[in-house]
Specification:
By secondary structure, this protein is α/β, with parallel strands linked by helices. It has a single domain, classed as 3-Layer(aba) Sandwich (Protocatechuate 4,5-dioxygenase, Chain B). It contains 9 helices and 10 strands. Strands 5-2-6-1-10-8 form a 6-stranded mixed beta sheet, with helices on both faces. Strands 3-4 form a two-stranded parallel ribbon.
Length: about 260
């Protein structure tokens, strides 16, 4: 019998973590050594937004370098993990009657490969990505994600990749009021996670009067909801990488494991 896989939300931060030996990367490596080896990975990345749900369904997804202004060494990175068309179809099946587009051309964006090249550097585990539909409330994402819970019993690691606090416009700010606002929001999110208050977390803009400083756009926060949605009642959670530079906090959440 296959053991239930944990689910994990990773603050991915800068794509440079893919090639630099940061404390964040070291924690991703340590995580992969602690948890059971998955038969496949389903990643919900902040960097794939679509009108409705879509899932990558190709057998050999390319490595997408969806950024600019970084050194050539980062553009040279390839993560040649195989896809898993059968898993893509299984995702679509679980999410019915919500339509899910099977996208045979979609590759792996840096929200996925920048963390996986640290966790599983051999790129020998099949990887599928699920997109974030635009202009949907957090409750829609959460409710849809709950249907994916059976995958945890099928050897699939469900991975959310984003950042709880992600404000690139103010990245690196040393303004004490802004820093305090980001930390307050992050701490409130953690408190609600521990309390199992998923409804409040789905309605994230109500968590703090200055929530928009932490979540100016939703795409980096929303992957967290996909991980919380597959948590079973009473299942333990743990936090790591609970820090970060200014407007990007790397706080990560392990469910189960």
């Amino acid at each position: 019998m296959t053991a239930k896989m944990p689910a994990v939300f990773l603050g991915h931060g800068s794509p440079m973590n893919a090639i630099e030996d940061s404390v964040f990367r070291q924690a991703w490596q340590a995580l992969a050594e602690r948890i059971p080896r998955p038969r496949a990975i389903l990643c919900v990345s902040a960097h794939w937004e679509t009108p409705g749900f879509a899932v990558s369904a190709g057998a050999r997804p390319e490595t997408i370098h969806d950024f600019g202004g970084f050194p050539k060494a980062l553009f040279d990175v390839r993560y040649p993990a195989p896809g898993d068309p059968a898993l893509a179809r299984r995702v679509a099946e679980l999410m019915a009657p919500t339509p899910v587009h099977l996208d045979a051309e979609r590759g792996l964006d840096h929200g996925t490969w920048s963390v996986l090249c640290a966790m599983y550097p051999k790129a020998d585990i099949p990887v599928v990505q699920l997109s974030l539909p635009r202009n949907r409330p957090g409750s829609t994402h959460y409710d849809s994600a709950k249907r994916l819970a059976p995958l945890r019993d099928e050897g699939v690691l469900i991975l959310g990749s984003g950042n709880i606090v992600h404000n690139l416009r103010l990245w690196g700010s040393r303004d004490e009021r802004q820093l305090a606002s980001w930390m307050r929001f992050k701490d409130e999110v953690k408190r609600r996670i521990v309390a199992g208050d998923h409804g409040a977390l789905a309605d994230y803009m109500s968590l703090d009067p200055e929530a928009a400083l932490s979540v100016p756009t939703p795409e980096h926060y929303l992957p967290l909801l996909y991980i919380l949605a597959v948590q079973t009642s009473g299942e333990k959670v743990a936090f790591f990488n609970d820090d970060g530079p200014g407007g990007i906090l790397m706080t990560s959440v392990l469910v189960g494991g």
